[in-house]
Design goal:
The chain is mostly helical. The protein contains 17 helices and six strands. The chain has a three-stranded antiparallel β-sheet with strand order 1-2-3, with no helix packed on it. The longest helix has 27 residues. The termini are far apart. Bound molecules: carboxymethyl coenzyme *A (CMC).
Length: 425
Amino acid sequence: MSQQTAILHLPGQDPIELPILKGTAGNDVIDIRTLGAAGYFTYDPGFLATASCESEITFIDGDKGILEHRGYPIDQLAEHSDYLEVCFLLLNGKLPSKAENAKFKKIVSEHTMLHEQLSKLYSGFRRDSHPMAIMCGVSGALAAFYHDAMDLSKEKHREIAAFRLLSKMPTLAAMSYKYTQGQPFMYPKNSLSYAGNFLQMMFATPCEDYVVNPVLERAMDKIFILHADHEQNASTSTVRLAGSSGANPFACIAAGIASLWGPAHGGANEACLDMLIEVGHVDNIPEFIAKAKDKDDPFRLMGFGHRVYKNHDPRATVMRKICHEVLDDLKIDDPLLDVAMELERIALSDPYFIEKKLYPNVDFYSGIVLRAIGIPRSMFTVIFAIARTVGWISHWKEMVEQPGQKIGRPRQLYTGEVDLTFPKK
Ligand code: CMC
């Protein structure tokens, strides 16, 4: 089939033919790379209709509520896989064989310890620091400790960086929490699973034995799976942009962590639980719904809406199920779950939310699950960061390995002053 094109008519110029590129699924894209030569840029702040790259990692159909990693639907991965297997899939593009799976898990579990000197960095932070603030610093600091394998043109070096990040991120995260609690850091235990080890480093103390609760371990693992990757979101795009200049991968991940922190992105799970606590009782829900609908009030229902999903967020469906399983298993009667379920019911039948296609997103239920596991609110976004690290690395790797990769350099519509004369003194 011959290449389809879009014809663009610009004032005073011959029509320009722009190639239409087809993916395996999702919207076709118009290749506008030659447009600059015609004296025009395209304008799309917030990237509402811009494909910033070509990728084979994750596919989202926001209208149908589909999320697939390397072709596998997220609900199947959450049900039948585990986080490290999903990591292998994201990084390598295929499911591992039994032997590959075992080898991958062994390597990850054997690189969980940090350079001992790195732990000293924590004492430079105030004890009341937000753990995400600490994470921004200590993750970037990895670049200062692990620079022995940093020739990014070498596949082996890229692989070593990937394993280091994947293995050490839970350790960095748990230490960020322990530090704010004034408790001693717990070393990783390589005999435990990825999720089990994280729980151990979070909740164990040197004074007594800690036994990982298998229900919480599985729930934690599923939370990691649900947050592992999400295509070209703000933090992933940040990592790609930072990495496009050839920057150190640990520094790129620190940039991703900074971007994730915001309440419109990864910070929404913490903000959502704050909101549910503030609502407090089902009787107060109408007041909050009215605030969310009021154009003059900046308040938004946290955990609702998504740039891409204009239908149910498939991650939210899985998270809702996990939420019920965990609370049932632990026999926890959390009044916030009642508030959340009623809020969801009312919002989903309200014309404002229906017309704007605002559905609960993954963060709507994740806060309640994390709270049941015993994770403090300030650590919610940190857990998102642990899980998303594999997505960031997969995209970083894909980008640097793509032939003809260029530095990311958007253009602008300039609206400021021009050609002023500096006053003589
Ligand atoms: N509550 C009330 N109104 C909302 C909400 C909300 N949560 N979200 C969007 N709207 C309205 C918004 O006011 C706007 O109305 P209008 O057209 O009248 O101006 C319309 O819906 C479209 O909103 P938008 O801000 O233009 O949409 P966006 O795609 O730029 O923003 C979003 C997406 C996720 C930032 C936004 O829905 C939001 O702020 N949600 C709450 C925060 C949240 O839960 N974020 C977590 C996202 S999922 C985790 C992740 O992947 O990071």
